[in-house]
């Protein structure tokens, strides 16, 4: 079975949160016509939500009655899979994705008259619009374990589903939001009005009564052992979407070098493969290479692949940022032991004229959650700070001269 990204707006070739696409079947005729969602249970399990929530959302969005009978999920009328998939995107945005980090590692909590998403990736709490018809249904039918819990929690991410319902996501722990105050913030997803402000005040008051959340000092990272990387590559290779070519390139490189990076194809063969996949001028190609060409000997390996990297990056700003983004993802999530070597890595890229000082300074001066969670981005850029500062000072001295 093919899998698609839970957040279809995410174009990361190694996006690890997958779900099966909606499969529907139209039954009956005339006034009795209806649509059966064949795999709603599997889709809901990937999202970590009860199937009834998704079914009720479809009913309210499509203006049709729904029915659940013996694990069969039905909607009155004829609705094709594409229409249901587009509607599901709205459900995911409103009831699954974290409003801060956009990860689907969330739980719905019901507290008094408040519905909120509790993110297990970044610890962020975001309010769910109480005006939605589904919100009223959830209030009356809260998820198991989603009501009245307090204090520190840990949960296994259910979004990263492989065939058979297995997961490759590791255990993640609660963390506080990135606010300088250190307090967990609540964000209203829709435009504020009096009703929302009232809800927000009540939610913050309820949060004060909760036990304090302890911050785990360990790096937030998934299990990126060799086995996990191979499993992720195989999963991505099955994805039939606009990222299929990048997934194929990444899967091929990881498979070829599963024993050692010395077993990687030659730069010429890698270049031919990129041409064959027709992704030569795509910034995502550079991002894939940044995540698959290196290991602990990255500084030396930059020299080994200099010809290929120089030809693809070409000192273009978009390509340079994509390469740094791929490195940030590899270093921050897959090989955290390299974080302390970030200054040496940047020096190698700068010294070999792969990345300009302007791009490095710009990248190092601003935290971004485009490629990794914000907390991980902070750690990588904090490690880069000495080299970025050196570049800035050298630039200032040059200006003075």
UniProtKB/TrEMBL annotation:
Residues 239-401 form the W2 domain. GO terms for biological process: formation of cytoplasmic translation initiation complex. The keyword Kinase does not apply. One of its GO terms (molecular function) is GTP binding. InterPro entries: ARM-type_fold, IF2/IF5, Transl_init_fac_IF2/IF5_dom, Transl_init_fac_IF2/IF5_N, Transl_init_fac_IF2/IF5_Zn-bd, W2_domain. Keywords: GTP-binding, Initiation factor, Nucleotide-binding, Protein biosynthesis. One of its GO terms (cellular component) is cytosol. Belongs to the eIF-2-beta/eIF-5 family. This is W2 domain-containing protein. The lineage of its organism: Eukaryota, Fungi, Dikarya, Ascomycota, Saccharomycotina.
